[in-house]
């Protein structure tokens, strides 16, 4: 019966990518570690008496909140690009001041600040906020202390205790000092307290600088915690580490706009770290908008144009394209010319200007500033007879790494790279991954010397292995950068390209054992060759290396199946292995990423019509749908897949309408370890609708 709807005459019309219908965050490189896989046959089902192991990262869904200032449980959201959110009404009695960030202008900022100042300095000296009356001054009404002032004192004491839990980030090792658990507890506790203290007048510049430092360290620790995971988190999973990133992002934005509204104050050190936090988040345009707005405010201009702040914002300006090099160079020279004989430029400004010069291919200017930076640091401390402290040397470290990652003169970049590898400098030169990736890209784009790129990749891996600083995250990211270049060098399959692929696998294995992230990247990148022999070779390589596999591996295998002509039973075997892997890790429902991988292997493959077994793949998809769809993680996913499938080919609607008659004559014993979704169960009772 199903064959009737999937005959060779069935046309694949109105093909729409499943990824095109929703906003997608930039795809992270496939990343994980990985158990034995084969496409040769089905995986034995887990014993019926054996309960799957409860997954380490299985949590209940957190409550969603679209409010920017919400202190309730927050569901993770994508912040890869600036997405303005509604600005909560800080004054419940003045809803007219409520605004969205998209509506933020210097004029509204000035009006809001004037309104705020008027209310704060009114004859009563009070402000109504969410049905609580706050005193604008601690002592009022003849020196009497309002009850809420005692509340402020207790909250301030807790605030300071949380600040004391801030951890330090070791630039050399990337490790965090202090207890991570205590740190996260402090972060979650301090943010709502910050909101309650905004109008207390007690959040001075020093406290605020320490608060911003804590938030930025939170981003660093979050990144470090993610790097320890064996695989990326699924988008539909609910994990505390995802929620904390959303919480940090909201708090960083909140501090920024509170500063522009005149509700808090920051010193140059605090604002510099705030902009660096935006750099960590990748919010270039939002950072430039905040800087432009603050610079235009007469009461904030001195802060936003201070040397360290300019040093942190200059790279943003160049990357955003809003400023040309000459404008920034004139600002830098004006500050430099204003210095007295014994006055020195701030090191932050020097590092920022070095990066701007390198970004715009002014290598000699960058070298001159670097020479001045090192001279200023060592002359200053040698005169005192002491060695420069680590935090001061870190400016030279960042300048050195900037030459590796941003210098367009590859000979100069090579020089700095070799010094970093040899550790021949009087300051730390860790091979930070983000700079190495830029170095690889620049080397390829400027020289097109593949052998040189390959050499850099292997040297970096030897260095990481000798320092024992590699992990799954590093493997995924670094290998993705190199293999992207490899497949640009060899865009099509040939004996030469296949031999070179074998060679780099051997080279990699001579330095470190083959791991899942490496294999996952290979599977994803090699799809451009559309060669089943290469696909089988990569699978055999994975199977011959005994690393435990995660569900990411099987998803990558399935996605790769959409680009190579293999039989449908091999696809079924991989899907069963995926389900078995998920069940063993305690998953009770079929995740979105799992079904997307199967769709990409079958009906959503852009090469479906080129395969000999096109009808077999379509049949397989709908047979699996009948068996598995009741265990999807949500009804929303169920409905979304139906709509997307019908958009691929409207004839599929007939299959959905007659799903009860589809003969699902395939064995999927692994599905017994998954639960039925009651909302889907109830929905199916009404029939399939479109």
Automatic annotation (TrEMBL):
Residues 30-49 have a biased composition (Low complexity). This is Protein RMD9, mitochondrial. Residues 1-49, 105-138 are annotated as: Disordered. It comes from the Eukaryota. Residues 1-17 have a biased composition (Polar residues).
């Amino acid at each position: 019966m199903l064959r009737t709807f999937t005959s060779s005459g069935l046309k694949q019309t109105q093909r729409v990518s499943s990824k095109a219908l929703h906003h997608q965050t930039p795809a992270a490189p496939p990343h994980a570690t990985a158990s034995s896989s084969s496409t040769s046959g089905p995986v034995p089902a887990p014993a019926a008496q054996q309960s799957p192991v409860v997954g380490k990262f299985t949590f209940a869904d957190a409550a969603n909140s679209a409010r920017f200032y919400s202190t309730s449980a927050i569901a993770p959201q994508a912040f890869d690009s600036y997405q303005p959110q509604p600005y909560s009404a800080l004054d419940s009695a003045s809803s007219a001041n409520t605004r969205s960030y998209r509506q933020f202008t210097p004029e509204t900022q000035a009006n809001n600040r004037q309104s705020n100042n008027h209310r704060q300095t009114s004859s009563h000296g009070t402000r109504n906020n969410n049905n609580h009356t706050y005193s604008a001054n601690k002592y009022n009404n003849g020196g009497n202390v309002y009850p809420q002032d005692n509340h402020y004192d207790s909250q301030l004491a807790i605030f300071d205790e949380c600040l004391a839990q801030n951890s330090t980030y070791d630039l050399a090792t990337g490790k965090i000092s202090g207890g991570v658990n205590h740190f996260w507890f402090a972060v979650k506790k301090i943010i709502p307290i910050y909101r309650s203290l905004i109008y207390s007048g007690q959040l001075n510049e020093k406290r605020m600088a320490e608060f911003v430092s804590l938030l930025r360290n939170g981003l660093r620790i979050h990144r470090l915690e993610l790097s320890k995971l064996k695989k990326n988190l699924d988008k539909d999973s609910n994990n505390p580490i995802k929620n904390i990133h959303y919480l940090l992002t909201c708090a960083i934005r909140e501090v920024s706009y509170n500063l522009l509204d005149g509700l808090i104050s920051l010193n140059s050190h605090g604002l510099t770290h705030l902009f660096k936090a935006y750099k960590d988040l990748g919010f270039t345009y939002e950072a430039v908008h905040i800087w432009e707005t603050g610079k235009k405010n007469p009461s904030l201009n001195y802060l936003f144009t201070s040397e360290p702040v300019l040093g942190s914002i200059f790279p943003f300006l160049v990357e955003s394209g809003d400023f040309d090099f000459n404008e920034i160079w004139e600002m830098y020279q004006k500050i430099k010319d204003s210095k007295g004989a014994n006055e020195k430029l701030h090191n932050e400004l020097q590092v920022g200007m070095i990066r701007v010069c390198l970004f715009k291919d002014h290598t000699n200017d960058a070298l001159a500033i670097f020479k001045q930076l090192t001279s200023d640091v060592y002359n200053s401390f040698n005169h005192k007879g002491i060695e420069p402290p680590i935090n001061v040397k870190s400016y030279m470290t960042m300048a050195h790494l900037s030459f590796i990652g941003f210098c367009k003169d590859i000979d100069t970049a090579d020089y700095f790279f070799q010094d970093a590898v040899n550790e021949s400098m009087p300051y730390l030169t860790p091979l930070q991954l983000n700079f190495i990736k830029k170095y690889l890209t620049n080397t390829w784009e400027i020289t097109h010397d593949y052998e040189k790129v390959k050499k850099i990749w292997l040297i970096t891996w030897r260095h990481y292995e000798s320092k024992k600083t590699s992990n799954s995250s590093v493997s995924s990211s670094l290998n993705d950068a190199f293999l992207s270049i490899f497949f640009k060098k060899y865009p099509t399959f040939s004996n030469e390209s296949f031999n070179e692929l074998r060679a780099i696998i051997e080279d990699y294995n001579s330095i470190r054992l083959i791991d899942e992230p490496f294999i996952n990247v290979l599977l994803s990148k090699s799809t451009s060759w559309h060669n089943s022999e290469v696909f089988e070779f990569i699978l055999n390589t994975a199977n011959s290396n005994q690393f435990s596999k995660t569900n990411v591996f099987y998803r990558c295998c399935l996605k790769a199946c959409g680009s190579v002509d293999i039989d449908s039973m091999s696809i079924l075997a991989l899907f069963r292995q995926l389900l078995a892997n998920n069940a063993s890790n305690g998953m009770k429902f079929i995740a979105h990423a799992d079904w997307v991988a199967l769709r990409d292997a079958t009906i959503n493959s852009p090469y479906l019509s080129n395969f000999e077994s096109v009808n077999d793949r379509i049949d397989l998809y709908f047979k699996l749908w009948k068996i598995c769809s009741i265990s999807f993680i949500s009804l929303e996913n169920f409905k979304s897949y139906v709509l997307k499938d019908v958009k691929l080919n409207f004839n599929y609607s007939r299959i959905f309408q007659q799903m009860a008659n589809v003969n699902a004559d395939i064995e999927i014993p692994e599905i017994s370890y998954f639960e039925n979704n009651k909302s889907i169960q109830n929905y199916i009772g009404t029939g399939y609708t479109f």
